Amino acid sequence: MFIDLAKIYVKSGNGGNGAIAFRREKYAPLGGPDGGDGGNGGSVIIQADRNLNTLLDFTYRKKYVAANGEDGSGSKCFGKKGEDLYIKVPMGTIIRDAETNKIMKDLSKDGDSYIVAKGGKGGKGNYHFATPTRQAPSFAEPGMPGEERSVLLEIKLIADVGLIGFPNVGKSTLLSMVSKAKPKIANYHFTTLKPNLGVVKIEGAPSFVMADIPGLIEGASEGVGLGFDFLRHIERTRLLIHVVDISGVEGRNPIEDFIKINEELKNYSEKLSQRPQIVVANKSDMLYEEEVFDKFKDAVNKMGYDSVFRISAATREGVDELIKEAARVLSTIPEKELEIAPEELFIEEEKKFTYEISVEEGIYTITGSFVDRLLASVNVNDPDSLRYFHKVLKNKGIMDELIGLGIQDGDIVRLNDFEFEFLL
């Protein structure tokens, strides 16, 4: 089953806590602190794998959590780093932030990877906090929490040539004739409900990948029919082969069909509509009036498309010439990365520990992530630790901010469940 969209939740590992420990050797009864650092948490990494072609696995498993880092221990022993979690996806997968829908990374090549959630940093052990005046710190840093977010995975097929056109014009038949692909073929609309890929090999020229894109219809660029589901799959192609049914057996006008499909391309993406096209008048074996092709070719030429082929995919008439021309045109078009507009890119916000100060009934309350981390790292019942606590508040500028707000000696300062009297 071909699944090309998925939403998953990822969480990196938390960093391990720094250790509070002291040397206890026989001949050093008053040895200094030697608590080791905690290990970093494991990261969640999404990686492209050429052996995959669908996001089917993500319909069954939607939550991915990396391992936490281990806590530090005595003798300055560091905690073990949490193991990174690798998530394999097909080449051509785009990663989007689910909240903003911005693009985080385009994994277009085998082995391309992106750290979608970075592991939390391990906390420092208490030996880092020893100073000449604080020789036995009884506090250490806690590990940093891991990142968590929901991401969207979206496949945009990697193919050199895309076959486009209305349903039932013979795109699948053409692909089956020029490659080993075995798409489902039948004489009714929307036989193809998923994109099919095939490798086309031609003597004297490099092989190329051709994609049979499910039939477009009028309004596809607005999501009608298969619309958005498959228009994105031709965004990477360097060359489009536009197939029309020249026979008219279904009562369709090939010129009108050609115009409508190109209008859908333009409505979806101006750049996509300017992609080089080879125009193919298919089912010529069922054509009873020869002038129909001549009129079609003249009309297409006037629109600026010079390369027009008359073929019958079913009988292979004209197919070899078409493929040779496709190979020739491809040789003149350089490969390039998927173009992503700057406004579509996801910008990672710098993570900062923040706080807010509010005043109510003479109590100055400080809240925020900075407060949570500070309280987790100190022992407020230990004099040395408490002095470190006040030093951090001063260095952060909180003391000066409190003075600016008019705090007086004896006023209460509250940080979560901890309170103290303010003294200048």
Automatic annotation (TrEMBL):
Essential cofactor(s): Mg(2+)
EC number: 3.6.5.-
Locations listed in the record: Cytoplasm
A GO biological-process term: ribosome biogenesis
UniProt keyword terms in alphabetical order: Cytoplasm, GTP-binding, Hydrolase, Magnesium, Metal-binding, Nucleotide-binding
A matching Pfam family: DUF1967
Positions of Mg(2+) binding: 172, 192
GO cellular component: cytoplasm
UniProt keyword annotation of Membrane present: no
InterPro entries xref list: G_OBG (IPR031167), GTP-bd (IPR006073), GTP-bd_Obg/CgtA (IPR014100), GTP-bd_prot_GTP1/OBG_C_sf (IPR036346), GTP1-OBG_CS (IPR006074), GTP1_OBG_dom (IPR006169), GTP1_OBG_dom_sf (IPR036726), OBG_GTPase (IPR045086)
Record domain OCT: where: 345-424
Assembly and oligomerization: Monomer.
Family per record: Belongs to the TRAFAC class OBG-HflX-like GTPase superfamily. OBG GTPase family.
Stated name of the protein: GTPase Obg
